[in-house]
Amino acid sequence: MPDKSFPSHARVVIVGGGVMGVGLAYHLAHEGWSDVVLLEKAELTSGSTWHAAGQITHSTSSFGLGKCVDYNIGLYSGALEAETGQAVTWHGCGSYRLAYTEDEMDWLRHTLSVGRSLGFNIELVAVDHIAANHPFYNLDGVLGALYTPDDGHVDPTNVTMAMAAGARQKGARIIRQCRATNITQADNGEWVVETEKGTITCEHVVNAGGTYARQMGEWSGLQLPMTSMTHHYFVTDEVPEFQNLDKELPVIRDDKKVSGYIRMEQKKGLIGIYEKANPNSVWHDHCPWEYENWLFDADYDRIMPWLEESLNRMPIFAELGIQRDVHGAISHPPDGNPLIGPAPGVRNYWCCCGTQIGIGWGPGLTRELARWMVHGAADISMRDYDPRRFGSYANKEWQVIKAEEDYCLRHEIPFPHFNRLAGRPIKPSPLYERLKEKGAVYEEVFGHERPRWFARNGVAQQDHYSFKRNEVHDMVALECKAVREAVGIMDVTAFTKVEVSGPDAYALLDRLTANRMPQKVGSITLTHMLNRRGRIELETTIVRMAEDRFYLVCAAFFEQRLMDHLTHNREGEDVTITALSEDWSALSLNGPRARDVLGQCTDADLSNAGFRWLSAQEITVAGHKVWAFRMSYAGELGWEFHMPDTACLDVYDALWAAGEVHGIMDYGSFAMNAMRMEKGFKGAGELTNEVTLPEADVMRFAKLDKDYLGVEATRASAASDLPWVCAYLEIDPDGIEDGHGGEAVLLDGKVVGSTASVAYGHTVGKILAFAYIKPHANVPGTEIEVIVAGQPRRGRILGAPAYDPESKLPRTDAVMETT
Question: I need a labelling partner for 90 at 20 to 30 A (CA). Which of 314, 505, 701, 725 fits?
């Protein structure tokens, strides 16, 4: 018989009762949505949550994730128990992250810099500090450690039950022993969740299914990339040396030797290992529904080298037995980051899954997801977690390859620009092989292969990793010099390319963009799309190609976000929205010789009178019709060419042949980034869902006298005292390390903000950065300090671009003489 008490409707239905699902119910209720139903097929925490080791650390070099873990530690260490009356069993023992090499020390120095910007209790310590607080650890070869005394570990079940109590106190309903069997969308947009006890119709549905999340997504026709990987930890017999300790030993994170962590578990030892070879993925197609509190048999052969080294590092464990082995499955997305946010292509289906460190990351991320759902935007940048960062290329076979790669990298040094090579290429451009033969070192962006830099002068064609300057620095300098002094060409096919056409195309775009729309055919506008909080969804260039046809270009990783933003905000307009990124290529030609080069390949009038700055024309190059946009992200005389894939190789070859006499050079994204920083052009690192247009200091691209999504919030922000503002600054170089983003910015010895993007400007000989800082500090000429590699470095606020501050070069009408 049907359960009459089973709800038929709810505002939100969350499917999954682990730390992520329960955490979201808790935070939605605290954000004011009490009509929330959570469904759990068995008992709360019976999936991956129950076998978690429960550690959490401030040792992270991610600025956004740092905010989350700091919130989580505050929640675990007192706030949650005080609110709910339910014990969470917090062990505030602190932790050390060890370093054995200079590269590891550089990582810890950078993490220290980020921690300073977030106000963490964090310090870099010598070996004697570790020995004084953890006398049992073998410190042979250790150079130092990052000490985070406010860290600890917590009981995963107690935390989840406490948040469940807090959610119930605010009105949320939790239904256990109720498996969802299907999730479909009704014609009116509502979601229908079928279960073993009945059917619930809801406005929002949330997939918090843990290891079941991928197959749950398939119910709704969604591809949610993640794979279950198995992880071991072991609990030893009681340790005699622990019996009389008056306080708990700090957690040891030993990434190099143990590839994991070692800590006390009551009076026993606990050893966790992420083996760096032979990773084990399971349930490639289907996680069995009947599995509850499921563990696999220990695979000692697979983890033995690291287990043996853990006993070498903790000799007091060597003669003890293993009392308990825990070998459970954990979800790993292709890049290791969880899926938190809207599912691609649908409205009001939210992902809260793919989290490999649920206790460490969960509550903070679910708080941000709750804010996103309730208010329209999270308060930290969600770019790294947005489920829409993957495209259709992320099929199951690729997911397994990338998850196994991610598992092996779990305890490797996260070098800047770390390049994950497995499963590539997926979407090579027509120039992929040609540029690879010329020395291109590629990166993957939304599946596309984009050149980072080109190996020359005997430098190996591979990634060279370091927190300090290395061989790549000099290669990028050559590319910047070529663009600034002669001419450079770049494959920019990875840009998102979307066409919006139809009778109502102008009306739709005008309603979604903060700047004036391009009025004439061939006009170009740079603008931003906002959410209802006035926060930045994305920046895009709009080209008016005909009266009823517009071409939008934005960063590659925003493709699905742009498609969804356009589609979900339609209000009956007669438009067609077409993604062209798979079928169209693009090239960028920049430098003082760009007109000379292009002039040899086309009959078009390239003068200012014939082809004005920030305009577009369809011209013929190498026998192909291409769209040419006179614009330059490098800040030089230049054009972008957009064309069908079939034209790309011919156009490239023609431009290259014409440019050889002028010293044409291929360049990549590293040089492009350095040059945009010299020009003071803000990018994706600055233009995030955290900030409004006034806070990002891009109001010159916005109008307050037109109506568009987010305008009321933009007006309110413009009229208010801003909490922070995006500043442009220079930092004194030391010739060794330049910074990587997230570093603390200090004024008069006090932290006033942190960097968002940092790059060395090869043309101007300065380290340049964008930073979000308190407005009173953003005065041109103000002397500041930036914590680079853990040490203060002098800097100053700039009031104009470091290169060509009046932007004369892109607009030049001079015709260079052929040399």
Answer: 314
